[in-house]
């Protein structure tokens, strides 16, 4: 019940509307079946079997009774439409609320935590897991509808034959209780399905992200087989669940139908129940049997989908617990130097990335940090850029300590250009304005010029050229220069170029090196790399090895 309350609490308005429509629909169905009794008694010569509570209807004209019956049917149709729309609104509200909460928690989390989670798990959460949680909300509406219908039928039956109705209700509760083990199995299979969906997201994400590698090595068949293995696992869990669900539904219907047949036989042969009373009771029972089976099915389906809700809430809570501290403290302004003092950081597996690093980087000039792979260069860049908080030590901007709550504000003064430039779908203009939405044409032109990206203006559609997915229509050097122009458009105090030219040809490397050289005196540039024109052009150079500063003194270019 706590899970259901939490689920419905995600969309209280839609939940109330759905409940109201479910109750109204159930009431109209129950009243319609009860109304059959006076209708049948009017057609019989003897109406002595009419229950006392329905006695006032004995003298109603037959036309009025038929008209009332027709009105109830019409009202029920309208109510059912409203209920269906309310149920869909509830599902959409739950999915949208969970996705928003999940995305907000992810975006507010520490970068180190997000890097450990991995994008495949986050994609599975935001797409598949949340969608399955929405199905759980829809199943709650199904249970509410059928539960309200069963309650209405029970109330109608109590008006007509209390003892028989109580016996039938008791039998229904026994049947529901008997399926407890199947519901527990449904929950286990639901957890297995969640794991299968995560495996599919991981396998497909890796395959699609490595299509060039897969094609170049002729590994298409192997990658297909790897993905199919994840599909098979998911389908096996689904098949097992469907088989058990159909079995449970069949058992419920068979036992309920047998009980109904026995009750009707006793009513006719032993208790001589009037036909005018027996027929509506039979209609109530015949209607209740499939509703009971539907309720059991919805309850079992809910237990199968509930693990997705638990997983979504757990990941939201996990990301909320890793929330990055944010305060009103303003970040220091970089005018003289940015430094790290006795900074250390270890990865989740305990492997140290930086060990007691103390380093000062002068402002308004360029500094290259070199070293072999795994030396800690990118980790140092992420600490200086405010993405990571060190395990020990401090970051200082112009001598002022960068407090944990000020890291988010500091990042707004920092721009990154990575080895693989990230461009979004849309035009070149859209990508540039992503970093500085208020920039005018003159600022855009200046950023393109400083980034040696004037080629953009020579394209047939200029700034309005559609880049497509990831800017694949452009060369690597062109994408990198657009990414650099976007970074410069934000007028950063610190520009971090993390292996920004390592995958480019010498001509593109030279072009970006020339662009960075023009930033001397205007921006602090941190270059992370091994070699190349960009690294060689840096005014200062620092070497890292195994997470420590190299014993050699820092070098400066003339």
User: Helix/strand/pairing class, anyone?
Assistant: alpha/beta
Low-confidence stretches: 552-558
Global Rg: 35 Å
How is the biggest beta sheet arranged?
7 strands, mixed
Shape by Cα distribution: elongated
Helix content: 55-70%
- Measured between the Cα atoms of the first and last residue, the distance is 73 Å
Please provide the ordered H/E string of secondary-structure elements.
HHHHHHHHHHHEEEHEEHEHHHHEHEHEEE
Mean pLDDT: 76
Quote the beta fraction: 5-15%
Number of helices: 19
- Total beta-strand segments: 11
What does this structure look like?
There is one protein chain. The radius of gyration is 35 Å and the shape is elongated. The chain is α/β, with parallel strands linked by helices. The C terminus is likely disordered. The strands form 2 sheets. Strands 3, 6, 7, 8, 9, 10 and 11 form a 7-stranded mixed β-sheet that branches. The chain has 19 helices and 11 strands.
Structural topology:
Elements: H1 2-9, H2 12-34, H3 36-43, H4 62-107, H5 111-117, H6 119-160, H7 162-178, H8 180-209, H9 211-216, H10 220-269, H11 275-321, E1 337-346, E2 352-362, E3 366-370, H12 377-384, E4 392-397, E5 400-401, H13 407-411, E6 414-417, H14 428-433, H15 441-450, H16 455-458, H17 476-489, E7 494-498, H18 506-517, E8 524-528, H19 533-537, E9 540-545, E10 548-549, E11 555-556
What is this entry, summarized?
This protein has helices at residues 2-9, 12-34, 36-43, 62-107, 111-117, 119-160, 162-178, 180-209, 211-216, 220-269, 275-321, 377-384, 407-411, 428-433, 441-450, 455-458, 476-489, 506-517, 533-537, and strands at 337-346, 352-362, 366-370, 392-397, 400-401, 414-417, 494-498, 524-528, 540-545, 548-549, 555-556. By secondary structure, it is an alpha/beta fold.
